UniProtKB/TrEMBL annotation:
This is TalC/MipB family fructose-6-phosphate aldolase. The keyword RNA-binding does not apply. Keywords: Schiff base. Gene3D superfamilies: Aldolase class I (3.20.20.70). InterPro entries: Aldolase_TIM, TAL/FSA, Transaldolase_AS, TSA/FSA_arc/bac. It is found in: Cytoplasm.
Length: 226
């Protein structure tokens, strides 16, 4: 099980990776749009600098035809580093790109997955990660228990190394569902993780513990320190 940050905000990445057990960062054109018009590769290199070489960085191509996507992938790898996972949408052209990149030994994250068949095809094409879009699929009335279970079983039964990287979440219940069904990792907006921990109930428990201690031993800045 692994958590990744679905963000391109440098301050957020710096802040939240110091709090949460983060194993990487995912980006896409829509996420990059949120930080404004920046020099893309300079910004992505800054993300790499923040998370370090041991964590995964996933960067998406923008083109829609195979030749353009392959050129963009080459540029991404050249401008950032060779360990970046190239995010490729699972279209007919995208599947060609996934196969080609894997033949070259490049890490690939298959993205924009809305169906079991897309996931199966991406697995067979050799993708390292597959990213089913949970909330978007749910909005299309997909049975997410059936979908996720089928993908998990497909990977298990064929003993392949592809990992499920769940994406597109609007609430923590969706994240929990992915992980309990056997998803290997999830990429999440940092605020969702923050809100899962900093709830009023948790804060009340902390305050109650402190109050109970003070009622017996008195207060103090460092109550357990001598």
């Amino acid at each position: 099980m692994a958590f990744l940050l679905d963000s391109a905000n440098l301050a957020d990445i710096q802040r939240y990776q110091e709090i949460f057990p983060i194993e990487g960062v995912t980006t896409n054109p829509s996420i990059l749009k949120k930080v404004g018009k920046v020099d893309t590769y300079t910004h992505l290199r800054e993300i790499r600098k923040i998370i370090g070489p041991e964590k995964t960085l996933h960067v998406q191509v923008v083109g829609t035809d195979a030749d353009t996507m392959l050129e963009e992938a080459d540029c991404i790898l050249k401008e950032i580093d060779a360990t970046v996972f190239i995010k490729v949408p699972v279209t007919t052209e995208g599947l060609k790109v996934i196969k080609t990149l894997k033949n070259r030994g490049v890490g690939v994250t298959a993205t924009a997955i809305y169906s079991k068949m897309q996931a199966f095809l991406a697995i067979e094409a050799g993708a390292d990660y597959i990213a089913p879009y949970y909330n978007r699929m749910e909005n299309l009335n997909s049975d997410m228990t059936d979908t996720m279970t089928a993908i998990v079983e497909y990977i298990r039964d064929r003993k392949v190394v592809t990992k499920i990287l769940g994406a597109s979440y609007k609430n923590i219940a969706q994240v929990n569902h992915t992980l309990t069904l056997g998803g290997h990792c999830v990429t999440v907006n940092p605020e969702l993780l923050w809100n899962a921990v900093e709830t009023p109930a948790v804060q009340k428990a902390v305050v109650d513990f402190q109050s109970d201690w003070e009622s017996v031993y008195g207060g103090g800045a460092n109550m357990l320190l001598k």
